[in-house]
Amino acid sequence: MIIADRKPLGELLEMVKDCNKVLILGCKGCVTVCNVGGTKEVGVLASILKIARKKEGRPLKVDEKTIERQCDPEYIAQVKDLVGQYDAVISMACGVGPQFLSEAYPDQRFFPAVNTTSFGGAVQHGIWAERCAGCGTCVIHHFDGMCPIARCSKSLLHGPCGGSAKGKCEISKEVDCIWDMIVKKKMEKGRLEDLTKMKPNKDWRTARDGGPRRSVREELAP
Amino acid sequence: MRLSYPSNVKVIQVPCTGRVDIIHLLKAVEDGADAVYVAGCLEGECHFLVGNLKAKKRVQYVKKVLKELGIEPERVEMFNLSAGEGPRFAEIAREMVERATKLGPSPVKMKKAA
Amino acid sequence: MNDLKSGSNLEKVLKAGHFALTGECGPPKGANVEHLKEKFSHLKGVVDAVNVTDNQTAVVRMSSWAACALMIQNGVEPNFQMVCRDRNRLAIQSDIIGAYALGVRNMLCLSGDHQTFGNHPQAKNVYDIDSMQLISLVKKMRDEGKFLNEEDIDIPPKMFIGAASNPFADPFEFRVYRLAMKIAAGADFIQTQCIYNMEKFRTFMKMAVDMGLHEKAYILAGITPMKSVGMAQYMAKSVPGMDVPETLIQRLKGAGKGKAAEEGIRFAVEQIQEFKEMKGIAGIHLMAIEWEHMVPEIAERAGLLPRPKIS
User: Fold this and answer.
1) Which chain A residues touch C132 with a CB distance below 8 Å?
2) What phi, psi does A81 have (nearest 5°)?
């Protein structure tokens, strides 16, 4: 799912500094799954903002609501009668939420409470890691279920580079070298010759490099 | 044991400190508490195995948030003691009251309009 | 001598069967042409070609092709290093043509150290293609006279193509396959990462020779003389993909205070003597970074001077 991290408190307080009444809008989708923007986190952020503003002597009224998702017009429509009552609305959803809300309610200001980072999954309780870069041309099947575009710091297609040491990436000992893993798996399964064949240059047109993307289901779209 | 501890400590009983969540600590601060502390079992002796460790992490998180907001993180604290340590319970209560007195009233208490 | 790919001095020296010697020079952190000239002046006539690094370790310096052009103007043959980190395939093809137009004839194709190492870690990461694909690209431009998109090039660049090899990175068993791939992709010559673990390198070279790689490309062994115990310890601990045996560090320590540099040079000279006899090694790539003035002495002591002059 989409992974995000809450913005620093200083930045959030700066965003609402001229507000007296705000709504924090959570999302039950990805941000709930990575524990950053669901009902619970909305409550925590509401309390934090109130504490900060009480301390300043300028109390802030904060309401809380969490909706199913903020990436579908049907769910965005549910808050139609609510969003106009505030000086600003803080969305805890990924980058999609504040944008959908802004488009649906152009007269209101919607602030992002989180910095959206990547597509990934839980690797341990409380830890989520990037797995997919959204390049638009998936080649995982060539690499035994691993993606070098997302997981190699240099997106190499013929790795590992000379900086791979003891299974770790040159940029940090916290980062596994995906190429080390790919090579070892290929060697283990007797498929090493898959790697010795030249791969064609990547066509980045299907990635963000080609411009903002749009997916159309012919059978559903008008 | 009928030991006394300061009357300005409000005790909220929970079956295990693992039940105490971030929002409970924040609400206490938000509502003007000068200090809030969690008293759990000794580490390794939690009746529910790791509830006190979860509480410890949550206390650390709240301390971090307070620091970011310019509020003394010492206003929130985690203590560990066994159920039989009555005198220690009273001692902790006195320690936190002393700490809160030294730190002064919580900066979150509503300031009177100028 | 008439079927040369690029006609560069390095190519001629290797083709004629001489034991080659290349050096290295990092451009200045500015337009300080005098500083650059001073650095490579030590190498003039002492090596067959001088590698010019490309924003090495992601630290911004004068661009490699510009430094190469200055070298050529001053009678020194450069080996133009290009990394994939900072430019996309448009800029890559464009720079290769430009460098060739300025007289560059040798090129080393590299992925490039990640920008987190350098002095502008906030930069956007390019890596449009990788070093393997870059080698293939330069070969296509030279031998087919075509751009990546199959259009004809109006006077194609004819480069002598080099690639790097690091026998000390992991996984070890795969490194020789990767070397084979680079050669198959079009590398004419190889320069290895600097070697300290001679035993491991001998194992690697044996595998390379068994695969016949030394007959398909010229392999130059990389050497960086140790200047101090501190340098050895730093490289052992903090440089990924570097293998510095404890025995070497002890040897440098044992040399005594102030004598480590001389011991480091002695070790380098011993290595060169062994490489001269080692099967599959066609020459030495001597990287005396910020120690360029020592290269003539090292080359002299290793019996590598005078350099052959091929017409």
Assistant:
1) 157-158, 198
2) -85, -5
